[in-house]
Design a protein that fits this description.
Strand order of the largest sheet: 1-2-3-4
Largest sheet: 4 strands, antiparallel
Distance between the termini: 74 Å
Structural class: alpha+beta
Number of helices: 5
Helix content: 40-55%
Oligomer: single chain
Number of strands: 4
Amino acid sequence: MIRIARSSLLPLLALSAALVVGLVSACGGGSDNSDPRVGEVGGVAELATYAYAAAGADGLYDYLAPSVTERCSREGLATALQDIELPTGWRQVKDVGFEGDRATATVIFTTPSGDREVKWTFQQGSQGWRLLDLPGLEKCSS
């Protein structure tokens, strides 16, 4: 049986606690991970990013909120986002915040020129969380 002196155990416990806090901070991105909506928004952000990477604006269109698709066609979205570099993959979501039926999050995805952080706004509806706003969407009106 191995015996560890109590005086040696305290620094080990402090180091372990510091590592756990560091890992939670790094993975959590400042969001309240105990709220299940964080995972829901993160999941939609990941799926939308990969759809966008695979099929361009057409893939992203399926993740838009109904209020957006009423004013923005698939062709309009493609035109609005044509000057934005397409993602190649998804990295993470951070800083998820909620106000009523809306959520904002910083989505980090990979591109050929490096990681890119963008702010996306989501709206919860009958189909779950859908994109309400993202950079370039303001250019889409038809």
